[in-house]
Design a protein that fits this description.
- This protein is of the alpha/beta class.
- The protein has a domain at about 75-270: Type I PLP-dependent aspartate aminotransferase-like (Major domain) (Aspartate Aminotransferase, domain 2, 3-Layer(aba) Sandwich), CATH 3.40.640.10.
- The chain has helices at about 1-5, 10-15, 35-50, 55-75, 85-95, 115-120, 140-150, 170-180, 270-285, 290-305, and strands at about 80-85, 105, 130, 155-160, 185-190, 205-210, 220-225.
- A 7-stranded mixed β-sheet has the order 1-7-6-5-4-2-3, with helices on both faces.
- Helix 6 (about 115-120) links the parallel strand 2 (about 105) and strand 3.
- Helix 3 (about 35-50) runs antiparallel to helix 9 and helix 4 packs parallel to helix 9 (about 270-285).
- The protein is flat, with a radius of gyration of 21 Å.
- It starts with a helix and ends in an 8-residue tail after the last helix.
Length: about 325
């Protein structure tokens, strides 16, 4: 499919209507919706206004979306929760762990607020934020992370790409280091998910909204919690959907729902999720390997064209 997108202008403009007017380069902010994503959202609204049994449909629709996301990430369906913005997933981790006074959390200050404040806020529990120091903004290496780790380090929380510089960390190297040292690893993946494959072998928690490289709408997002780490997190919100309650009648004992539903407390944001589902299906058709190859090719072309100009490439 990517070959046709590159070669067929009419096809490209059909799939991505904004291409008829401009060359869009601001996916780090948000993505213009592909046609099929907008259509999926319109269909969800139309269906909600004209058809019955929305509840039954939602159950199947949400289950299908979880499976699609799991295939996209290369992980298990039970490890996927459908959330909202990236910050909802990050806060689920920051405020869901059973922190102890004296714990350290390693993070990086020069980044987007949602990547910093949830961890700084843990100081109220006696947790010490350890802020990484870099020579250039965002250029975090596994060696820099290693120097910040102590016997008290409980978790490393980083973004897959820095909000300011765009520097992409080596997720595999940082994750392997954390696993070797017995430290949890939380990743904000919104700046790269959909553009580059993300190795999850040593990632314990991943959060991402759909509105950037995933080509989806705002208001939909995902939280990945490794199966072996699920019991470490306490849900921030308890509702009718993330507990075991026969016929939605409360029980005396709180038992959390199994799998990713543990972090999905109430009614789903179906319209944005419908858009996210269509967007991920589109990315799956094209293939992440092809997408990342194309992005790097365009970057190389741009650097070559700008070589005569006095630019510094980060």
């Amino acid at each position: 499919m990517i070959a046709e997108l590159e070669a067929n202008e009419e096809f490209r403009q059909h799939e991505f209507p904004i291409c008829a007017r401009k060359i869009y380069c601001a996916h780090a902010a948000d993505a213009p919706l592909p046609r099929r994503v907008a259509e999926a959202m319109r269909e969800a609204i139309e269906d909600a206004s004209t058809n019955e049994k929305q509840f039954d449909k939602a159950l199947n629709f949400i289950a299908d979306t979880r499976q699609l996301v799991a295939r996209f990430l290369g992980t298990e369906t039970e490890e996927i929760s459908l959330t909202g913005p990236t910050s909802s997933g990050l806060n689920a981790v920051a405020n869901g762990l059973d922190w102890r006074a004296g714990d350290d959390v390693v993070c990086y200050l020069d980044d987007y607020p949602a990547d910093v404040y949830p961890w700084l806020g843990l100081e109220r529990h006696g947790v010490k934020p350890v802020l990484l120091q870099t020579d250039r903004i965002g250029e975090i290496t596994s060696e820099i992370v290693d120097r910040a780790l102590t016997k008290r380090t409980r978790l490393v929380a980083l973004a897959s790409a820095n909000y300011i510089s765009g520097f992409r960390i080596d997720v595999e190297a940082v994750g392997a280091l954390c696993a070797e040292r017995g430290v949890l690893f939380s990743l904000d993946a919104i700046q790269t998910l959909g553009a580059f494959p993300i190795p999850l072998e040593h990632v314990d928690f991943l959060s991402a909204g759909a509105q950037k490289w995933m080509l989806g709408p705002s208001g939909a997002g995902i939280l990945f919690v490794k199966n072996s780490r699920r019991e470490l997190l306490r849900p921030l919100i308890i509702g009718g959907w993330n507990v075991e309650s026969p016929n939605f009648i409360a029980q005396r004992e709180i038992k959390y729902a199994k799998g990713g539903r543990k972090f999905e407390p109430g009614g789903y944001n179906n319209v944005p999720i419908a858009g996210m589902q269509a967007a991920i299906a589109l990315l799956g058709e094209v293939g992440l390997a092809k997408i990342s190859e194309r992005i790097l090719s365009l970057v190389a072309t741009l650097k070559n064209k700008l070589a005569p100009v006095d630019f510094e490439f980060l």
